[in-house]
Amino acid sequence: MSFEWNAHRFSGGVLALDLANTVIFREDRKRCLDRFADPAEVPRFAEAAAIFRNGEWGRVRFHAPKSQDGIKALIDVREVVNRLFRDAAGHARIRADYFSEFLHIGSNVVGEEWSEESLGLPSLSDRIRDLSLGAAAFLSALRLLDPARLERIKICPNCHWLYFDESRNRSRRWCDMNVCGNRAKARRHYVRSLGHAGNDHA
Hints:
By secondary structure, this protein is mainly alpha-helical. The chain has helices at 15-20, 41-52, 54-57, 68-88, 96-110, 133-143, 147-150, 177-200, and strands spanning 23-24, 33-34, 60-63, 129-132, 153-155, 162-164. It comes from Phyllobacterium endophyticum.
């Protein structure tokens, strides 16, 4: 069953982290869910990403893989991006083994691109660019290796998504205040109400 790839699904702030976040509740085995378990969601994600990541990429078409091997390669990119930046979140370090794997997988994906296509980010040209989703995610991730950007990567304490904190003083706590922030607020209120109820019956 398909669902809506809306703005909340792109709370990561950049394409690389949005791709990593296609698995939700990664750190909770009972709730963990891979949106790409249904291959039909891959092209739907690519189409939505071209809209919600316009500020990062300009006018672009992200091409989703159609074959099983292509989808596996995309998921390999997703998982190595997740490992690299989830480990880096909070202390801005890069593990050598994760980085080596990231470069190896990314170079293979980029090597499949049409040789005449520009891989720069983004272009001011009005021409619509065409890139594979995997290559675009790898290039997006490369930009996050800048130390000033790397230290802004965080993990949402509610849904476990990775997100890029663009706030001036790096004070953003949730991937999406309107969703995860409000859910956390509701949970705190519920816990407090239970405490008050217990006191009433003491």
